Amino acid sequence: MKCLTCIEQGMTSQVFPGAGMSTCLGHDPYWDEAGVYHSHDPNWHSTNYRCSAGHTWAVSIRQKCPAPGCDFGKDDVKIARKENTNGE
Ligand SMILES: [Zn+2]
Ligand SMILES: [Zn+2]
Q: From the CA of 10, how far away is ligand 1's center (Å)?
C-alpha cells in the first residue's frame, strides 16, 4: 500500500491505517439450484488511511461471493481520496 497522491507527486511516505467501519445491512446467504452456497453481503467495509505527508483516503471493499463463477462483489473496491489537510 502506497499513498496514491504521493506517487503522483513523486513523494515517498509511510502509510498508517486508521479506524475501520462497515455499514450493517442484513443479508441472508442461500444455496442456488445446484446446491452452491452464495453469500451476497451488501455491506461495504471501509478503512481509513493516512500517510506521513498528511494525505488521507479511504478504501472500501465488498466481500466477494464464494460461489465459483458468481460475480457478486468481484472487483468491488472503491478508493475515496479526501481533501488534503495540509492547508496549503
Ligand atoms: Zn501522501
Ligand atoms: Zn453468489
A: 10
